[in-house]
Amino acid sequence: MEYGRTLFFDEFAGDFHPTFKKALSEQLFAKGSQGTGIRLFEKYNFLLIVGMIDPEKRIVDSKVFAKIEFVTPDSCSITVGIVWQSGNQGDLNVIHTQDISDCAVEFNWSEDFPLHAVLSHIRPYRVDKKDKTHFNFDVEYYYHLLPDLSLEFAFSKPLNSSEIETIDTFFSDFKTAWNEQNKGKSIEYVSGIHETGNNLYSVVLDIGLKNDMKTVKKILQSYFKNCGNLPAIKISIK
Question: Structural domain boundaries of the chain?
Answer without folding.
Answer: 2-119, 126-237
